[in-house]
Amino acid sequence: MKLYILAVGNKMPDWVVAGFMEYTQRMPREIPIHLIEIKPDKRGSKQNEQLLLAERERIQAALPSACYIVVMDERGKQFTTIQLAETLIDWMRNGRDVVFVIGGADGLHRDIKIMANEMLALSRLTFPHGLVRVLLAEQLYRALSIIRQHPYHRV
């Protein structure tokens, strides 16, 4: 099983890159996290709908085939870390790769949300999309630590 984080945004600050790499490097070899960056559309004189439509095309083209699609959205389901670990076990049993889609500054086009198998929220708060990468990578690592009974997660 592979985990993908497909994220709109390709020029992240150093702290985002360092934080993301910290947790992806800790992942076990058999369940790696792969980052797919989508170049955001330039705002210019474009309306929000035009931006999201252009990004939708890039996202759909970059989605790995036959993946279980999880859209990150503040209106999605909220899990505890234990629930995320249990869900990760289910995904592992299913055998499909999982792709987490993170929108850019303007969010995600509704078509991407409709095609998702699931919508997940890290919080009801709105976070910068770069920070979501780091938080998601850490939570995936933490969930695997729970599954493997590694002492990283303390109750």
Automatic annotation (TrEMBL):
Belongs to the RNA methyltransferase RlmH family. This is Ribosomal RNA large subunit methyltransferase H. It holds the Pfam family SPOUT_MTase. PANTHER family: METHYLTRANSFERASE, RIBOSOMAL RNA LARGE SUBUNIT METHYLTRANSFERASE H. It catalyses: pseudouridine(1915) in 23S rRNA + S-adenosyl-L-methionine = N(3)-methylpseudouridine(1915) in 23S rRNA + S-adenosyl-L-homocysteine + H(+). Its EC number is 2.1.1.177. CDD domains: RlmH-like. Specifically methylates the pseudouridine at position 1915 (m3Psi1915) in 23S rRNA. The lineage of its organism: Bacteria, Pseudomonadati, Pseudomonadota, Betaproteobacteria, Nitrosomonadales. Keywords: Cytoplasm, Methyltransferase, rRNA processing, S-adenosyl-L-methionine, Transferase. The keyword tRNA processing does not apply. NCBIfam families: PRK00103.1-4, tRNA_RlmH_YbeA. Gene3D superfamilies: 3.40.1280.10. One of its GO terms (cellular component) is cytoplasm. It is found in: Cytoplasm. S-adenosyl-L-methionine binds at residues 103, 122-127. HAMAP family: 23SrRNA_methyltr_H. Homodimer. One of its GO terms (molecular function) is rRNA (pseudouridine-N3-)-methyltransferase activity. It is an enzyme of class 2 (transferase). It comes from Nitrosomonas communis.
